[in-house]
Fold these 3 entries.
Entry 1:
Amino acid sequence: MTNSILLPLIVLIPFSGSLIIGFFYAFYQNKIKEGAYSLVGIGSVLISAVLSITVALDFFKNESLTSINYVAFEWLHISNFKINVGFFADHLSIIMISFVTIIGTLIHIYAAGYMSKDEGYGKFFAYFNLFMGSMLLLVLGDNPIMLFIGWEGVGLCSYLLISYYHKDTKNVKAGNKAFILNRIGDFGFLIGMLLLFIYGGAEGFTFEALKANISTVPHAMLTAIALLLFVGAMGKSAQIPLYVWLPDAMAGPTPVSALIHAATMVTAGVYMIVRFAFVYNLTPDVGLFIAYIGTFSAFFAALIASHQSDIKKILAYSTMSQLGYMFVAAGLGLYSGAIFHVFTHAFFKALLFMGAGVLIVSMHHKQNIFDIRMHRTLLPITFITMLIATLAISGIPPFAGFFSKDAIMAHAFASGHYGIWIISTITALLTAYYMFRLFFTVFFGVIEKELQKVNKSMQLPLIILAIGAALAGLLNLPHFLGGENQFSTWIDTPDKAIHISIGAEWILTVFNIILSAIGILFAWKHFGRNPQPSNAQSSINNLLLNKFYVDEVYDAVFVKNIRRLSYFFSTIIDVRVISEIIKQSSSGYFRLGVITGRMQNGNVRFYALYMVAGIIGMSIYLLEFL
């Protein structure tokens, strides 16, 4: 018997933690110690992690087990339309909840140290638990409606946490930006979901029912649905053109950045595409469009990252770039490869952000890499763990990122999409360059500085994540290296099969390693000994420093024009038209009221006159017509 009852508990326990912390923070804020808040916050996510692993072990022990369901109750039942509050776990969702809860627990432990003595400590953990619960609901919901509730939940939590330091206007604007851009994407997602219900939900609106009946949807409509669903993923996972919120999201505390980039929010878009693989396998043109969007997003973000100096923004653009690789994989039908890169990325990206947080705290909250500069011996654990993470994201074997990213590029080459492959390999070179630019600048400087003491709870998670960043790739060791692609085989996604010879795989692998090595050597040459920011004033350099002026273009084309339109409606339509109509209507009613008031003056003789007039009128009518 399976532990299906555990599925709702995995979701509800973090939600319960959020409610408990929120209640005590609201009513007993000054009486509760930080330890109590962190105990509930960390404990709830840790319990979810234990329950997730318990369910995962059920699947590993029972090879015939492909999915489990738990229906809590019937939510809506109108005619043939029925929606349950139900939970569904298969190999895909089991993988997701396992690493999301494990990584989430480590980030919560790290946050307890990072946020120590913050005046909103309890509020922060209430939001943090709510974030985790929303992501788990998104993954475990058994129908698109449940997924969408979790989807909106992580959007809300990102807004609350990005603008956490709300006394600073810049942070509030960053939160608003993330919220609005995600609403744009979610509008497309919602329309796509409604069309999917209208055309494919007659037999039920669970993922299993939709999968069984998707072939009945007209192809043109299915193409529209696939595109609209991807619009939602563009916003949530920060792909061109809805990516501009992600760098500004660094306004939130560093643990928030780690959680958004490694375990929640941005990975939701990739998960959603893979969950709807039964739609995208029938719309290969949309899949190719997704792959190209991912390719250009990866390259575009890598170019910008190579010229940034804010450590968190460099990592933010690197996330956008790595997400691009995931969408390349999903778009080309390598769904297991997309999720495997989500999996490995979670370890090294959480490690990079949390390591960056240690650096920021120790350097008195400076974020410019040219100001952070310190000797590597000052923070040895941070130095070693960030080196492992940097090697992993740069695709150097045997670290995790090498196996997941290399498989995606090999699939692109073998599929015959050489343009995607070429741009992806160039992006890999740029990734190695800008990540080691950051690493060399920070740890190979010549400046000795007095560091601020860092809480010990911020160090342990780095070590655990470093082990994952170093070894997680071995879970999907490819055939040409003597492995069995265990991860891809077990996750059992409907991948598009391709053939590539062992010799070709070796050549591609060696080529990728050489390119990454070139990027590292180039970074060492310019930033390894005496790192200095570039003072070049070339047009290309200025273009990259200013992020291609995309924010300025969006501001000129969309923001200012919407403000003008709002001004037009508020001053012309609202004040001069609508208000005037209401004013004239109200004045007419006022005059009618005055007349009526004169008639109803309390004089009995006037009332008698009205009665006589009425009797005379009725008499004339009766005599005339009867």
Note: The mean pLDDT is 91.
Entry 2:
Amino acid sequence: MRLSAAVWPVAVTFGLGAAGLCVPGPVGDVAAFVWLGLFPGLALARLLLPAAANSTRWTLGVALAPLTSAVAGWALLAGGQPLPTAARLVAIGGWFLFAGGEARALTRREPAPADAPGDRAVWGWALAAAAFVALPGLLNAWTRVRSDSWVHAGIVWEIAERGIPPQDPRFAGLSLNYVWFYNLFLALLGALRPTSSPFTYMVVANACWAGLLVWLGWQLAWALWGERAAARPALPLLLTGLNAGTLLLWPLWFLRALAGEVRGAAEVRRILAGTHWDRVDVMRQLCAPFAWMVNSWDKFLLGTALGYAYLLLLLSLWAGARWLGAGAAGRGPQPPSWRWLLVAFAAAAGMMLFHSVVGLSAIPVGVGACLLLSLLASREPRLGPPGRPLWLAGALLAGLAVTWPYFRAISRGWSPDRSGVQHQFLHLGWPMAWTLVTACGLAALAAWPGVRRAFEEYRVAGAWLACWALGMTLFALVVHLPEDNETKFVWQVFAPLAVLGGPGLPALVGAWRRRLGRAASTALAVVAFVLPSALLLFGFVHDPSGATAPETLRAPGEPALYAWVRERTPVNAVFTDHSSRDVLLVEGRRRLLAGTPYAPERAAFPRAALLRRRAVEADLYGAATDLAGDAACLDSLGAPAYVLYRAADFAGAEPWRALEADSARFERVYAAGDYRVYRRKS
């Protein structure tokens, strides 16, 4: 029985991998995820922590798998291997290393006191979180492709079709000024099954990572408290505690009826008319009025690297907690393993590779927390040796150092002389303070007893995490990013508070019950924690936007056009499309002259070049009075250039007639239905 208990995870994952190779359609795509989403990370976890308990090693392995696969794939691509070959080598190599390591220790290991045990409650919360994330993607196709998911899919095809380092497919000729290891991971997955869709892997990855979020929270909470009674409550708080209770503040929106250009009943009607509970925009109603939009589930319901970067953040906190140990008055001082420094190093490097906003905030804050703890330990011996936090700081900085060339490469385009973006990075404003208070207030109340307990009992890991939360709060208050992207810091403040809140959440709910009675306290808990998630799920499942969105709506003849673009145009072709459409990024897998309506602040588009390209588009789709200048701009790309016209855009006008007449510069290469494509002659 003990042998079979150790064998069945290996057998199940191998069965999934085999199905991913043989079963056609989305089912096979889902099963194939294990080849790169599990096996390479589990192999690395065996090397890093060979003696760890199964739950510890599997949590670490699943957390490291995308990072391991992407880095190994990048190395093979840099060595000259094509993408499909690199994907297969990483997958097969990961499987053999994983299976070989498991075969050497088939009997189950008893967990050490510092290892978190398996727990049915953890499994329940993990499965519930994964299902919550997967349901919208299964029931509403629009949620699979909306917002950033579409652009990230375009970058995936950029890597799959044209390699690394990628250009920005929205702006042909421009090196991508954004992190792209997440897209490389998806491109490697897609290379295993050429008929698969990156949107499928986005949903599968998000569901997997939502479940992993629970397990990382459990591991971190156990490293702090070492008891189920304190660790279990941290899990529901981590999943539902952000913005808990802010629905009770929703009537504050009506304060706008007291000031502004429109007041009174007219403003009340406008507020009510603009409130949508049946679509994705419900996220904006679940925050406090006048606060930034933040949500616990948002980045796990979207195809973006941020959700995985948050997991690496939790991984770095877990590694730090394991390295620092429980403390003298906790479970007794635990001899730290230097291997946890390697985990902290990998987590820091992964944050920088997958989402540098998280890395460049979490790493300095982590180092600052280490320095503060070292100072406290020099005055209080029961907090452990002062040098131990400094080793952790060194591991975090090493992770930053090895990824610095990559960060420099993707950030070079943000210089003001190229992008024209002038930005003040230090700024103190009331919106962030209000957002932190309202979004993290309930979690902070629950965390306070845990913070006191950590310092009173000299729990080193708990004290360090409290210092970390304080540092992240100060960082969030003073650092300002382009397009208000500092809102990403709110979850980073909330997560450690949720873990510290494990001991305090039952006491907080108990206080409600004593003061309000059972019925009222239950209603309050439902409104604070359950109702926001239920409304969010309803909005995502019901959202009708897919019926009219350009990502999902297809006019007659449009699919045939995109098939022609994919099959009959050079892989390095550049297209011009009216109204800055970006559909061709995914459906045609081709770059665009200017496929974005946004300013340079969005992705460091060169301001002068962006204005020039928009002028070219305005002329091509308007009066067409400067075809010589337009052709010169297209020629400067150094790639085959195409101009796409959709008759429905012009209400009877025919701007393509100018290109028809200028046969010396342009030739028609496609005409079917309402669509015409012209190629710039060499």
Note: Strands lie at 574-576, 591-592, 641-646, 666-672, 675-680.
Entry 3:
Amino acid sequence: MSLQESKTWYWQGFPILYQSAGEMGPPIVFVHGFGACWQHWEKNISFLGKSCRCYALDLIGFGGSAKPEPKVEIEYNFETWAAQILDFIKQIVGEPVFLVGNSIGAIVVLQAAVQEPELCKAVAILNCSLRLLHERKRASLPWYRQIGASFLQKILSNKTIGHLFFAQLAKPQVIRNILKQAYHREESITDELVELLYSPSQDSGAADVFLAFTGYSQGPLAEDLIPLLKRPLIILWGDKDPWEPIELGRSLANYPIVEKFIPLENVGHCPQDEAPELVNPLLLEWVTNH
């Protein structure tokens, strides 16, 4: 099925872009990772939309959604994004949903499911952000990484330096090189994908959102939220992820609420886009079982 142009929903007065696919079946809401957008799920909602009602949206601050000023107009944290997802379910979907998230989007859907479990049927997370630079995790890092992370955050807190740093990152070739780290299958890195990530980086406020999140070392960890879940959870993990190593991710499977931990062979950080032929049948089976 081909998808039409993005739709717009206003949340707290700010425009939020989203897309839907499918008119019948159980509802699923997909949440992207850092710096991404709803289109990162296009290969999934076009497939699953044949038997489910699928929704994918841009978190505020990312993609085509508004990028209000950090701390002045909004706080960029997991509580804010979870509140956005919960209001989207209430106002757009209108009934409890299956929640699916990738990377930091995995933390967002966990937070949403913990906050209002009655709006959630079950949760699936893909290559969940382990937040290795969180203030509670830094002690386990080598000393030079602890110092390096703190130093970088301090330097980037200077707005002028931070904006210069972001300007160096927000270039198509740099984005392509970053994707080459994240994706194991290089053929999945298309010009269209690079443009999807590059275009929002040129929006007014994009640099401030980036800097606000890179300076955010607090908030919930997956291991804080999973024990609080009241809904079943499955975990999918690309085994070639250089950012969120599967060896560390496997520890999340130890909680009783986790039904399955499914390794995806020769797949990187964004399985939904890199290997939809593996992810889509697993998600369809998961929804059908619940």
Note: Residues 7-132+219-289 form a domain with the Rossmann fold fold (CATH 3.40.50.1820).
